[in-house]
Amino acid sequence: MREMEEVKEIKVVSSYREYVKRERKFIFIEFSILTFLFIIIPSISGFYLLWLVTLGIIYSIYTLAWNCMETMLGRTSLGHAIPFGLAGYLSAIVFLYTQNSIFLPVAWIFAGIASALLLFMLSLSKDRIAFVFITFLIGAAIWILSPLLTLTKEGSIYGGEEGFSLPPVQVSTVYGIAALMLLASFLFFGIFRTSLTGLKFKTVRDDEKAAKIVGVKVSRVKAFCSLISAVIAALAGGLYSLHFSHVSPEVFSVHIALFPFIATVFFRNSEIGGIAGSFILVFASNYLNSIFPQLYLLLYAALLILSPLMRRGGLIRLLIRQRSLKREERVKTKEG
């Protein structure tokens, strides 16, 4: 009996190693394709297209950061607009008083750490549904109160509903920084997800009690995931404000809060899926907005309504499955 158990254990370990090897092979292929695309895009894009692609890259970083907490902790956050927006506000305030852009990354990281502390404390609760609503309510409260923030410098008032200005930066510069950050995030999350440490972290997502029994320090896992997720989301928020050279209460809006949740509706449980979904939303929203202001909100509403069904396997997979079922029905009808 013991020998049979050992054989089964060897088979499990061997199959898991094969799985990891296969997954990482795909990750490096996808990484290579992304790198190639990011290299050639500036040479084939006009100003506006490059600007829009840069926005898609920034949102992709944001989505990957959000997805870390979703896949590793099983915590659906609707409060990631907090680190995203806080990074923009802090960097703008720092620049207002120092007039030196070298301190901007420090402000981004500080915003990420502060937000991570909040997310970590909220994640200590075992009620995962409450986590969704509490993070959303805190983010919404900040969004409502942010127009009240005003600062005075040399007799002039800054902030309020108009927000704060940041130093203008060339689109190509923001594009280069954002592309490098996205590639680094993509590779990090892909390798981490398929590592033994990532496997241990997923036990926390599946069953916290079982994770404690096998020796996983649940609080440490939650702290690590909250830190990584919030800091990278803050870096994305900092780049977002730099991309627009301006930050306003809009960075805490419901649209920003819901974006990564909706972006992951198209494809499930993969880094490349989160990136693809982010680009789909950015380009679709831009197109709908050109037809009529705020028309993209109807798209968001439709995807939210359909999300319970779509998130089982992703919208694309669902459409493929429905198409194959219709094809089978046609074949059966012809045969009958």
Please render the helix and strand layout as text.
Blueprint: H1 2-44, H2 47-73, H3 81-98, H4 104-123, H5 128-145, E1 150-153, E2 156-159, E3 164-165, H6 171-193, H7 196-206, H8 208-213, H9 218-244, E4 246-247, H10 254-263, H11 271-291, H12 296-310, H13 315-335
Antiparallel strand pairs: 1-2, 3-4
Helix pairs in contact: 1-6, 2-6, 2-7, 2-9, 2-10, 2-11, 3-4, 3-9, 4-9, 6-9, 10-11, 10-12
For this structure, what is the CATH class? Mainly Alpha
Radius of gyration: 22 Å
**CATH architecture label name:** Orthogonal Bundle
H-E order: HHHHHEEEHHHHEHHHH
Low-confidence spans: pLDDT under 50, at least 5 residues?
A: 1-12
Number of strands: 4
Mean pLDDT: 86
* Share of residues in helices: over 70%
Strand order of the largest sheet: 1-2
> What is the count of structural domains?
1
> Which band does the percent of strand residues land in?
under 5%
CATH topology: ABC transporter involved in vitamin B12 uptake, BtuC
